[in-house]
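yo

u said u wanted the structure for the complex thing, so here. seqs first:
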Amino acid sequence: MIRYSKIFVFLLCLWPLYSIIYQIFYNKLGAEPVDKIINHFGEWTLIFIFLTLSMSPLKKITNSTIWIKYRRMLGLFVFFYASIHLLSYVGLDYRFDFQPIINDVLKKKFVFIGFAAWLLLIPLAITSSNKMMKILKHNWKKIHRLIYVIGIFGVLHFIWLSKTIFFKPLIFLAILIFLLLFRVNFKKSSSKI
Amino acid sequence: MKISSTQITPEKFYKNRRKFIKQLGLASSVFYFAPTLFSTANASNKLTEYRYITTYNNYYEFGTGKNHPVERSQNFITDPWSITIDGEVEKKITLSMDDIKKMFPVEERIYRLRCVEGWSMVIPWLGFPLNKLLKKANPTSKAKFVKFESILDPEQMIGQRYPILDWPYKEGLRIDEAMHPLTIMVTGLYGKELPNQNGSPIRLMVPWKYGFKSAKAIVRISFVEKMPTSSWMKSSPREYGFYSNVNPNVDHPRWSQATERVIGEGIMSPRIPTLMFNGYEGEVAHLYKDMDLRKYY
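structre next:
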């Protein structure tokens, strides 16, 4: 049962890909197609970070561990969409002209932090298998806490590239804060007082 | 540099435009100003399609999305409308849109519009030089700058209900910039009335500056002694200066200004280099000689 539902979730997670292919095919990308493609995958990367971060709160709320079974797949989709996002920026927008890209990474903080977030995703993707989990034992959990940093970097990336925080970047920031608050153990800190 | 209309305009648009202009009874003498042609990218002087000019807009009074202005501005009421010219003038005047239309015959100007976000369009505006309008008001010797104020109407403009910017939208020019013959007041585009989403009924267009300098739906123009603070300067002084001249060598603090994307050119088209003063260097560079453009961005 869980196997079929996983296949179903997997196909569902490909939605951003279907929708962009449809838009390319039917010429619906509008005035600035390259920008649209880059932003599309950037936004979906953030959405998948949020989905990944939602699984353990959902576990707590519903008292069911089923959510955790989808977490790895969602996390890998974060890496997948982040990579397409990066590739469309490097390839479509700058046509692999690395001089201005290196300049941007070093000089522009939104590019720098976005690129840093993508680099941090690499160890998470590499250590996502069961085998690596066993090898790394307790360290695995520590490494995978990087997703919080990645989430913060990702939302900062969005805020810094936007001309104003109104409204989409603000909404994304609110969702991130909401999801991170689940991780704060209020009982523990209040008992200290 | 002036280039002939047929060189820059697809013929079907050209013919249609002639027809429109005749129908509207507009001025028959039409002047074309256009930036220098690129040697590397000849396609870049092609007119941007009407559908892109009118559906891809930054007009935060109607929302921050590019599609918001066209979606939310269609019921915006632009009639009656008047502009007041006040401040350091001998006598404050108020002109209705009808007055303005009678007093100032429009001409067509094909300008490149370069957005501070890093994209550009080539747009056939209809308008008249701002200096003609300003001369009606007899500014006093104290007047050093011109301040523009757009309409404040949160009832009709949903974006103004939120503190996105310092409403109403404010912009400013130095007097010599405002009097420059390339600086125009726009009332139409592609031979038609100006659509609401493009700043109807009347907007500014300063082609050598980033797009946000060209305020939309203007109701008040004031001559002032001190440099006015624009809405964008107030929002982020480090990022948006008073001058905001298009300059590929001075980056926005958060992104590069060296290149731009041409709107409507498809996925496979490359970025093109951004030109000093948006290609109008020959016409306007003298206004800024001896000025450090890194400091006065």
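Residues 2-192 of chain A form one domain. Chain A touches chain B through 27 residues (CB under 8 Å).
cya
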